[in-house]
Amino acid sequence: MGNAEDTHHETTSDDPGLDGQAGDLLRMLVENLREYAILLVDTEGRVLTWNPAAERLKGYTAEEIIGQPIDVFYTEQDVQSGKPERELRVAAEEGRFEDEAWRVRKDGTRFWANVIFTALRDKEGTLRGFGKVTRDLTDRKQAEERILRQAQEIMEMAAVPVVEVWDGVVLVPLIGTLDSARTQQLMERLLQRVTDTASPVAVVDITGVPAIDTQTAQHLIETIKAVRLVGAEVVLTGVRPSIAQTLVHLSIDLANVVTRSSLSAGLRMAFDILGLTVRPMREP
Known about the structure:
Blueprint: H1 2-11, H2 21-32, E1 36-41, H3 52-58, H4 62-65, H5 76-80, H6 83-94, E2 96-104, E3 110-121, E4 127-136, H7 138-159, E5 163-166, E6 169-175, H8 180-197, E7 201-208, H9 214-229, E8 233-237, H10 241-249, E9 258-260, H11 263-274
Parallel strand pairs: 6-7, 7-8, 8-9
Antiparallel strand pairs: 1-4, 2-3, 3-4, 5-6
């Protein structure tokens, strides 16, 4: 603790008021801040001071941590990569270093931390140590990750929408280019929806797909086979003349696949499979 007081004294010697009441108030401020772990670190990266917020955040008492290297706050991977030493080196060279990353508590649990190192130099410019301020931002990090997951789910639903258009009939209206990622999503989401709704018919509409290559066609065939394995029939709609010619040129065999040129024709086929008939309403 003596080293910490020396560091504090030399870096503020131009303000004699800090030796009295101001110094006491500064210490009270550091001790009573609940959201910020504030500590002093020597030039070798060892802990010199430890405020109550640091104990609450990281789990160590002052007796346990003072004199220990700051490596204990880092993940094993960060320690092996030399991150603690690198951060102190940058702070020494540039006067300050700030980072947001995972840090480790005494019990091994991790928290997302905002960390700021400040180099402390005396009047002659000699480095005496570092000030370190840490704040727990785990709640914010988790909220951001939750928003990202929700956005990803929305994007996936928009990319490959699967809707139940009738009791027993699910529809996948595909729009845009079908790459490997989208066709994989198509298979996963369609199988899940067919299973969840126990639908015996799935209509896959490719009217909005501008072109189909060999890989895309193979993915469609695999998707159709997978849907059949869970007990549902697939009606492929939107097979325009240009798409049909492409499939023939690619030697893609759709002989065992129910196809229709339009979505309306495909829905009528789905109703036929279910034994349903759609008639126009007559006026009384």
